[in-house]
Design brief:
46% of the residues lie in helices and 15% in strands. The chain is globular and about 50 Å long. It is of the alpha/beta class and 236 residues long. The protein has a 5-stranded mixed sheet, sandwiched between helices. The chain has a domain of 159 residues: Nucleotidyltransferase, domain 5, CATH 3.30.420.10. Helix 5 packs across helix 7. It has 10 helices and 5 strands. It starts with a strand and ends with a helix.
Length: 236
């Protein structure tokens, strides 16, 4: 199952007011594992970047003015995204801006399925903050590099957050237990899932990428608990 984790930076909040996309970043994940394939592009908006937006992402027109126009990168972007589901934090914002840019250069709007991590997090943690920073803190994901908004950094963080969110959902479905849903992610019963002995569909290179990714999640993440369990079984 191929999915695309995506984020954009823009000159403002509304394309209807003439604001433009100035950065796109996307990461490919397959079966909830990052493959190492990604897309990133700065874009010349052909307009100024308001001070309020500059304070958010730190991208000035002076920096962007020699970057390609959206119409010059659109085919590469569409080829990377394909027809697979797009995951974003407040996905309608990003897709709305991208569709405005696509239509402006004669392309059809994106018809990909949309997955909104804000909606997923609100369902799982009602009444609590579901900002990207708050979710990183909840899942012990290091976000110290996120001094300003950056599509590149934010997609990497969001990919980790999304994997954590979906792990919890899969466990509740696999175990058919209401108690599991109520428990913190870090206290799930790994004994119930470690003996499924599913055949691996990953190449050696993909396994190395996966292991490297797991190391970034912190010692309390679900993936690390699963790996530790597998290692214990091997030693037995």
């Amino acid at each position: 199952m191929r999915q695309i984790v995506l984020d954009t930076e823009t000159t403002g909040l509304r394309p209807s007011e003439g604001h433009r996309v100035i950065e796109i970043a996307a990461i490919e994940i397959i079966d909830y594992l990052p493959t190492g394939k990604n897309y990133q592009q700065y874009i010349n908006p052909q307009r100024d970047v308001p001070e309020t937006s500059f304070k958010v992402h730190g991208l000035s027109y002076e920096f962007l003015k020699d970057k390609p126009l959206f119409e010059q990168i659109v085919n590469d972007f569409l080829e990377f995204v394909g027809k697979d589901p797009i995951i974003a934090h407040n996905v309608d914002f990003d897709i709305g801006f991208l569709n405005h840019e696509l239509n402006a250069c004669g392309k059809d709007s994106l018809k990909n399925d949309k997955i909104d991590t804000v909606s997923i997090a609100r369902e799982k943690f009602p009444g609590q903050s579901v900002s990207l920073d708050a979710l990183c803190k909840r899942f012990a994901i290091d976000n110290t590099q996120r001094e300003k908004h950056s599509a590149t950094i934010d997609t990497e963080l969001l990919a980790r957050v999304y994997i954590e969110l979906m792990d919890a959902r899969e466990l509740s479905l696999d175990l058919n237990s209401v108690e599991v849903i109520k428990k913190p992610v870090s206290s799930f019963n790994i004994e119930k899932i470690k003996n499924r002995n599913l055949p691996s569909r990953l190449s050696d290179q993909e396994k190395k990428l996966h292991d490297s990714f797991i190391e970034t999640l912190g010692k309390h993440s679900i993936w690390n608990k699963i790996n530790q369990s597998k290692n214990n079984q091997t030693s037995e």
